Amino acid sequence: MPELTLAQDADADAVLSANPLALLIGMLLDQQFPMERAFASPALLTERLGGPLTAAGIAEYDTEALVAAFTGPPALHRYPRSMAERVQALCRLLVEDWGGEAERLWADAGSGREVLANLQSLPGFGKQKAQIFTALLGKQCGVRPEGWREAAGSYGDEGSRRSIADVVDPVTLGEVRDFKQAQKKAAKAAKAEASS
């Protein structure tokens, strides 16, 4: 079992380390929201739903009650309704295609490319998010099928500070945040130059 420190909170990180579905949900919520808060949300959701998160449980949960659990306070995401619905869609797909077991997405895969393809089949997982999660699995969870670094693209690079896959403590969290801000700044500058 990995000892993750993505949420920078011992209790929230224990939930992520013990429950592959919680980790997958944290990754799903990691957009337009601070990284560590996205990864702390599965622990709050576990509390609000009254027990360990399971794909079958969330898939069958009353949608409005799930939205209420996401709304809080505190809210589990900047967009609680759409993210509650997306998490439920993810869990329904896991039940239909993967026997309700999130870890089968990577445990059943024979290569890094297959892990990436499995992740990309999920609602809310575009190529970039799937690559970051593939890197996270390889770097911190010991999931290293053949070609995993290649499948993860630059997120799989040794020693990089590009994404949540590289966060192991408060220092690396700051380095990843700095990298993301520099990327945004560069993109903004490029856009301004293109329109002038």
Can you give a write-up of this model?
This is HhH-GPD-type base excision DNA repair protein. Residues 25-148 form the HhH-GPD domain. The protein is built from eleven helices and no strands. The chain is mostly helical. α1 (10-18) crosses α3, α2 crosses α3 and α8 (112-120) crosses α9 (127-140). It is globular, with a radius of gyration of 17 Å. The N and C termini lie far apart (52 Å).
Key features?
196 residues; mainly alpha; HhH-GPD_base_excis; HhH-GPD-type base excision DNA repair protein; DNA_glycosylase; HhH-GPD_domain
For the CA atoms, what is the radius of gyration? 17 Å
Query: Major sheet, described briefly?
Result: none
Structural shape: globular
Mean pLDDT level: 95
Briefly note the structural class of the backbone: mainly alpha
Assembly type:
single chain
- Strand percent estimate: under 5%
Could you give the order of the helices and strands?
HHHHHHHHHHH
Short description:
The radius of gyration is 17 Å and the shape is globular. It has 11 helices and no strands.
Topology overview:
Layout: H1 10-18, H2 20-29, H3 35-49, H4 55-60, H5 63-71, H6 80-98, H7 104-107, H8 112-120, H9 127-140, H10 148-152, H11 170-195
Helix pairs in contact: 1-2, 1-3, 2-3, 5-6, 8-9
